[in-house]
Amino acid sequence: MSEKSSEGNLDLGLQNIQDDLLVLKKTDLELAFLALLTCKGLKPLSRWEKPLADNELVSLQQISLLTKKITRTVKTGKEVIETVFSLSPVYIKLYEQQFGDTPIDKSAETQRFEGFLFGYPPCCIEQYIRKPYAANNLEEKDQKILFHWACKNCKVTPLLLDSYRSFYNVLSNLE
Q1: How far apart are CA 150 and CA 135, in angstroms?
Q2: What is the DSSP string of 77-145?
Q3: CA 118, 36, 12, 15 torsion-angle sign
Q4: Which phi and psi angles does 109 have, rounded to 5°?
Q5: How many domains are there within the chain?
Q6: Which helix (H) or strand (E) holds 48?
Q7: Cβ(127)–Cβ(140) under 8 Å?
Q8: For the chain, the helix, strand and coil percentages under 3-state DSSP, each to the nearest 5
Q9: CA-to-CA distance for 55 and 144, rounded, in angstroms?
């Protein structure tokens, strides 16, 4: 790793968690990014909808995240396992109470509650419910690193973007 990127990682407080982030990044950059945003408190809760190996769960836990596997079903009746992670047991418990052993649905009520748990701006949640993927004022590269679809005149998303960009760039260059 170059000296410059190592210093950048130190500036963002990543020196103690780099190895675990690399394990997660090898699985999927998006997984590592979600984990980083969550462990740094920018997201109260995150969900991973693909299977995770034991070493990936351990890496999440080693960066101070609590984890829980939640069983859900899709319309065909097939079970899916989601992994949620958070710094707070309260968010995990809320998710489990609301969604554990339930069918996955896209109702407005579900989207509002998930949006709250995942830290999405309320204005963006409401816009998405009314008209998903409506045009907004973000550059494509910025919208791509968000985990919510920003509404056109959001006041919160621009405040998040500087931190999101910093963490994404450092994580992308992490080797």
Answers
A1: 9
A2: S-EEEEEEEES-HHHHHHHHHHHTTEE----HHHHHHHHHHHT--HHHHHHHHHSTT---SS-HHHHHH
A3: positive
A4: -60, -45
A5: 1
A6: strand 46-48
A7: no
A8: 55, 10, 35
A9: 27
Q: Is 52 exposed, middle or buried (0-12, 13-18, 19+ CB in 10 A)?
A: buried
For residue 41, the 8-state DSSP code is T
Task: Tell me which amino acid residue 111 is.
Answer: Q
Contact predicate 88/66, CB 8 Å? yes
pLDDT in tens, 115-165: 999 999 999 999 999 999 999 999 999 999 999 999 999 999 999 999 999
pLDDT digits (tens, 9 = 90+) for 9-52: 545 667 789 999 999 999 999 999 999 999 999 999 999 999 99
48 in the Ramachandran plot: left (φ > 0), alpha (ψ -120 to 50) or beta?
Answer: beta
Give me the domain span that covers residue 37. Answer: 3-173
Which tokens go with 89?
A: 């047991």
Q: What is the C-alpha separation between 43 and 140, in angstroms, rounded?
A: 21
pTM summary value: 0.89
